[in-house]
Amino acid sequence: MSNPQDPLLSVRNLGVVYNTSQGPVHAVSNVSFDVRENEVFGIAGESGCGKSTLIKALLRLLAENGTATADRCTYRGRALMDMDEEDFRREILWQEISMVPQSAMASFNPVHRVGDQVIESIQAHRDDSRAQAMERAAELFDVVGLEPGLLKSYPHEFSGGMRQRAMIAMALSLDPGLIIMDEPTTGLDVLVQERILRRIREIRSELKSSIILITHDIAVIAEMSDRIAIMYGGEIMEQASAIDLFENPHHPYTLGLKNAFPSITTLGTELISIPGSPPTLVGPVQSCPFAPRCPFDDAICHSANPEAKEIAEGHIVRCAHSADAARFRELAKEKSTWLS
Amino acid sequence: MSSSGASHKLHGLRLALGEHYRIINSNKLSQFGFWVIVVFTVIALLAPWLAPYDPWEMTYDSEGNFASLRPPSWEFPMGTTHLGYDLFSQLILATRTTLLIGVVSGFISIVIGANVGLIAGYYGGKVDEVLMRITDILYGMPFLPFIIVLIALFGRKLEFIILAIVLIIWRTSARVIRAQAMSIKQRQFIQMAKARGASDFRIIYFHILPNVMPLLLLYAAFNIAWSIITEASASFLGFGDGETISWGGMLYELWLSGKTRVAWWWFASPSVCIILLVVSLVFVSRAYEEVANPRLRKR
To answer: CB distance from A120 to chain B under 8 Å?
Structure first.
């Protein structure tokens, strides 16, 4: 049995390589993080930074040309990567780790009633009768704020927000230890988004599940998470508690992201975007992935990929110049810094 | 499964039947086809009670004369053969054989085709490679030499005729359903089902199969039509079951008798029946095709 102080999920040096016709693509590399019991761990980053690949690797849903490797990847002390396919499917998937997918719209089978799809996972993992499973599904619908009568509807009869809530209900169905939410509010309007987030917060205070929240929306992640990891080019650039990350950011990329989002205190000031585009990730990484877009880059950044350093309790930065963070923070406020 | 589950299934079935009713009534031709199929089915089911004579009984007219090669009349609605057999009775009993062969081989071939297609499409890779090469080999197999060899080896038996038809016609349904399965496999709800811990079996039969159903029904109808034509050609060439009578077999008897030029009625009735039934099946499947392929729909 695992020690209660141990993290729920512990990942060390996870890498994912896709074999493509243009050569190997290192979609995720050197990713290490822990998710503790009953916390929300946010992973933020722009499109194509490897967020979704990361969770696909954890759930073994990678496309056929993708392979995942890790020094360690344990859930409650069990090594996930070493489990055989059948055990993983029966004992881990949904039972222990469930997910809310990116687009709930396309995630329901159009030919089956929503209820039948919600109970599918319950019946697959438990010996419940259909009636028992339906009862459980009705409870879950109640938890996410949907009429239990809607279980008899087809997916096309649901609105986007309803489908998203039904997906959350589905993810809760087996009381998993960990729920991975991949952009749970993308594609929803702000009001529905707020309602869904409030629902997630309520659920979190009632249940004991931990959540990995993946999004490109810094506002959402700041609001919801206990700890946050910022990803760029398939690697975690900075990792810290939510407060630490926003009050004491160290990595230039984090500074850039902060600039690019509006906040109430800086209302009226112009937002600054980070020029350039994300790396293609083809071939092995020989430098800091952010160096080409970093305003503070020098020769060291381009010659070697920096090691991750723990600069304070739980605050990990992957930057060769993390000691200069205070100076960077001042410079990063100026638009001219980013444009030069 | 509980009783509430059963009633739920029944409700689903009723909905499904309503949907079929709507598809069939969507145009005049499919309505016509549907009723022709119903009539033939009723005839096939009630054949022994409907036929006025035994199909191999030498008949005599009301005046006591041997009724050889009589054209259609009130007494013999479809005429008689040179041996005095009543063609109307033969036609009715032949309906049973023809429909039986059509439905049985149509059904078996669609079951094989669907499974091969779903498995090849879902697993891909080596499994797909092997199964698709087998269908390729079947595509290269000419039907007549195949059935001639099969019948020569095993004899003129109904089972072997069905076997020969099934072995040949499942190939097209397998290919089409494989293509459809491959595209559905890429949809996100399949990945979600995998994330939910659904087994491959469950994904194939609970998630993919219902999504290829319209196509499956369409090909079932095609397969039945094709089986009927195939059976007729085989019987006409003398490879039918000698014990039973079929429409193609009736034409074979005509050919053997050498009366083709004289007895037009002997030739007409089985031919019309074959054409009518096959065309009806095609009309009905056309209506289903519009569901499977919305591009055909009238705008």
So the answer is: yes
